[in-house]
Amino acid sequence: MAQGAITDGTASKGRVWDRFSIRTKRVIWAWAFLALPIIFYGWIRFYPTFQAFWISFTDWDILKPAQFVGLENYDKLVHDPQFWKVFRNTFTYLIVGTPISLVIAFLVAYYLDRVRFMHGFIRALYFLPFLTTAAALAWVWRWIYQPVPVGLINGLLSQFGIPQQPFLKSTTQGLPAIMVTAIWAGLGFQVIIFLAGLRAIPSTYYEAARIDGLGEGAILRKITLPLLKPTTVFLVVFSSIGFLRIFDSVYNMTSNDPGGPLGSTKPIVLMIYQTAFSSFDMGYAAAQTVVLFTILLIVSLLQLFVLRNR
Amino acid sequence: MTTIAADAVPQPLKFGRIRPGQILIWTLLLLGGLLMVMPILYMFSTSLKTASQVYDLRLIPAAPTFDNYIKVLSDGNFLRWFGNSTFIATTVTLSNVFFDSLVGYTLAKFEFRGRYFIFLAILSTLMIPTEMLVIPWYLMSSQLHWLDSYWGIMFPGMMTAFGTFLMKQFFETVPDDFLEAARIDGLNEFQIWWKVAMPLVAPALSALAIFTFLGNWTAFFWPLIVTTSRELYTLPVGLSSFSDAQDTRWEMIMTGAALATIPTLVVFLVLQRFIVRGVMLAGLKG
């Protein structure tokens, strides 16, 4: 009825429209504003979500029609050694990368917060990498990690007589080398957020603590860190999600053998990409995305849980 | 809402009280910061070197030259990718600024049945990772002939739950009296939103615009999947394929990387305060 009133002929439109109460008119306006977005979210977000679940139960290479195979893809996944390797890689990025980057970011923010001289300039230095294109800077880091006579780090090492390191060419150093790049790229954002969190703590708390004779360490432990908890939890989740979805830097730093050497740096998103768009095994790739979705959901729910029990 | 004074000075500087420890901390912070920008500086430095100078690892090139830039730009692909990225990031940003704030405003300021449900539905899409949607999007695009087109690259990001949520938070701080006054003046609901409410949330709009632009400018995963012809590559995807083809010509790769980075760095230098404040705002809201 509401829609009809608007699309009726122009003559009757005015009269019908005027008969509505102000409240009804506003409701009609609201749904008119929401019409296109509802179509968008339904079509581009919700429908594909259900479709992804459905595809994960099929065997499908795009060319032939999809065949329902039940849980076969998931069964294959559980018994796929490559998946478990990728799973381990992804969690190594997450479990090692998140604490390191958060500790560094907090230390920088904590001390930078007290620095007045050239504060803005130093902050900008830390923040700058966050604004660069990950795909572009991955190539810069790839150059940094090259053997002599090209790479920067090996060049420095050789000047001090330290043996050459293989970095990206090694199955043990490849993943940490990429992790450093990822930490570097995300650090500035974390510093800024920590700075905002520190600024949001009312200075009266600190004054009261000083009057009570608390030392710097006690203030940090009893006031700063507890009051910073929401910020920290947000950053832990944000950074974890970032590491769980790591792709751009790995793909570009190992593009001659994506995820190599021998899959030692490959994260789950790269496996999804290769399964779907190199092997065109859509059902199997969709099952992998469902697993990723589940992991991300658990991480997000943990955040809600931790914040609720403040 | 927490007030953020990014550049506020809590205590006046007292020169008499500077201790050696503070100087040490300041120096360490500065050195750390310089270490952070070192890869960026070396990227520019190497891009100004000739092929034979690349092995000279000094930061300041012995004989800086813009030859690499001329070479990289002259094959035309880079300018094309640059244009593609600019067009795509701008269009998606305009769409987000319009729709995210329209939806955020409606959810914040209108009373109707189903409002909470719509809000939760949109918010819940935050939980769905892009990686899960790319396969259905790819199939949808291939059926509708959206593969390898601007629209194909852009359509998934035309509205975002993050932007909607951000704008809803800010519109809630706009006093109803302002809107009511406009209503009495005879403005319709669309005009009230566009002419009265929107200017009141300008800081949030600029934060949203900066985020959306930056996100789309640097986006790699979906553009990599949906494009196949070189002419439609975005800058990151083009750069990736360009660098791959350069083998070990690092001065060329660095020039490409520098070209992809320069626009965002320029924008940052111009809008530094806005950006830092925007990140703080969005971070605290999120």
Q: Do you know the CATH architecture of the largest domain in chain B?
A: Orthogonal Bundle
Report the uncertain regions of chain B: 1-14
Can you give the mean pLDDT of chain A?
88
CATH superfamily of the largest domain in chain A: MetI-like
Give Rg of chain A in angstroms: 26 Å
By secondary-structure content and strand pairing, the structural class of chain A works out as mainly alpha
When the domains of chain A are counted, the total is: 2
The separation of the N and C termini of chain B measures 12 Å
Sheet with the most strands, sense and barrel status of chain B:
none
Large-scale geometry of chain B = globular
So what's the oligomer here?
heterodimer
Indicate the radius of gyration of chain B in whole angstroms: 24 Å
In total, the number of domains of chain B comes to: 2
Mean pLDDT of chain B: 87
Q: In DSSP terms, counting alpha (H) and pi (I) runs of 4 or more, how many helices of chain A? A: 15
CATH topology of the largest domain in chain A: MetI-like fold
Quick structural summary:
The complex is a heterodimer of chains A (310) and B (286). Chain A is built from 15 helices and two strands.
Can you describe this structure?
The complex is a heterodimer of chains A (310) and B (286). With 310 residues, chain A is mainly alpha-helical. Chain A folds into 2 domains: 2-55; 74-308, MetI-like (MetI-like fold). Chain A is 72% helix and 1% strand. Chain A contains 15 helices and 2 strands. Chain A has helices spanning 2-7, 10-19, 22-55, 72-78, 81-112, 119-127, 134-144, 152-159, 174-199, 203-211, 216-227, 229-244, 248-253, 268-277, 282-308, and strands spanning 58-59, 67-68. A two-stranded antiparallel sheet of chain A has the order 1-2. In chain A, β1 (58-59) and β2 form a beta hairpin. In chain A, α4 crosses α15 (282-308) and α6 (119-127) runs antiparallel to α9 (174-199). The radius of gyration of chain A is 26 Å and the shape is flat. The two termini of chain A are 48 Å apart. Residues 1-9 of chain A have low confidence and may be disordered. Chain B is mainly alpha-helical and 286 residues long. Chain B has 2 domains: 23-65, no CATH class; 76-285, MetI-like (MetI-like fold). Chain B is built from 13 helices and no strands. Chain B has helices spanning 20-47, 67-74, 77-109, 115-124, 130-143, 150-154, 161-171, 176-184, 189-200, 202-218, 221-226, 235-245, 250-285. In chain B, α1 crosses α13 (250-285) and α8 (176-184) packs antiparallel against α9 (189-200). Chain B is globular, with a radius of gyration of 24 Å. The two termini of chain B are 12 Å apart. The model of chain B is unreliable at 1-14 (pLDDT under 50). The chains are: A mainly alpha (310), B mainly alpha (286). Chains A and B meet through α3, α5, α6, α7 and α8 of A and α1, α3, α4, α5 and α9 of B.
